[in-house]
Amino acid sequence: MCGQRPLGVQQDRRAAAGRRALRAVRGRTQSYRPGHHRGITKRVDRLEGRGPVARTVAEADSRGRLVTLTAEGVALADELIVVHLDNRRRLLAGLDGNEQADHARLLERLALTLPPGEG
Questions:
Q1: Contact call for residues 14 and 81 (beta carbons, < 8 A)
Q2: What whole-number distance in Å separates Cα of residue 81 and Cα of residue 89?
Q3: pTM: predicted TM-score of the whole model, two decimal places
Q4: Residue 4 has what DSSP assignment?
Q5: Would you put residue 116 in left (φ > 0), alpha (ψ -120 to 50) or beta?
Q6: Of 21, 70, 74, 115, which is the most exposed, with the fewest CB atoms less than 10 Å away?
Q7: How far, in Å, CA of 111 to CA of 15, rounded?
Q8: Within 10 Å of residue 86's Cβ, how many Cβ atoms?
Q9: Within the chain, where are the H helices?
Q10: How far is Cα 53 from Cα 74, in angstroms, rounded to an integer?
Q11: Distant-in-sequence contacts of 36-40, Cβ < 8 A, 24+ apart
């Protein structure tokens, strides 16, 4: 266990990383063209109807739409990140510190194989 952080500290760092990632996407918009990705359009329609996202016309290309999280969407994302982190803790509880470190290392290695923006 020499040189390793206690499990609680590792989890706190991961939770903080998740919160930083969430803060990074708040206020960002994603442009898409209706009909271009039918599955996405239907999902955004449903989300917009429920309130977590808002859609506006893109200034640069009126065919595109900008999708942003509403205040309700941010609150929902905050709740979901907590649920996700709790679920991850539960799933990893059966691994010791070394196994968890191996798991994290392998996931990071796999993430490096993804195209830019998907990791």
A1: no
A2: 12
A3: 0.53
A4: P
A5: beta
A6: 115
A7: 18
A8: 12
A9: 7-25, 38-50, 71-92, 97-111
A10: 9
A11: none
CB 38 within 8 A of CB 86: no
pLDDT by 10s per residue, the chain, length 119 = 344 444 444 555 555 655 555 555 555 555 555 555 667 888 888 889 999 999 998 888 888 888 899 999 999 999 999 999 999 889 999 999 999 999 989 988 988 887 776 65
In terms of C-beta density within 10 A (0-12 exposed, 13-18 middle, 19 or more buried), how is residue 74 classed? middle
23, two tokens: 């803060």
User: Do 25 and 53 meet the contact criterion of CB atoms below 8 Å apart?
Assistant: no
